[in-house]
Amino acid sequence: MADAQGHWRVLDDEAESRPLSEHTTATDAERAAWRHGAASVLIHDRYGRTHDALPIAGTRFRTR
After folding, report:
1. Where is the composition biased (Basic and acidic residues) (predicted)?
2. Looking at the 3D structure of the chain, how many domains does it have?
């Protein structure tokens, strides 16, 4: 999820009040979301648009 300053946060859909991590690029945030073990990643841009992210090749997945 992007904020107005262009920082990207990775949020757990069950605990949105506290970010799992923060990043300066959307790509870094997306990679971090996959590394956090997400089953899927939904991108929210600063304009309120959303889209599903596809897994990034070479990203290691952590099992829960």
Report:
1. 9-21
2. 1
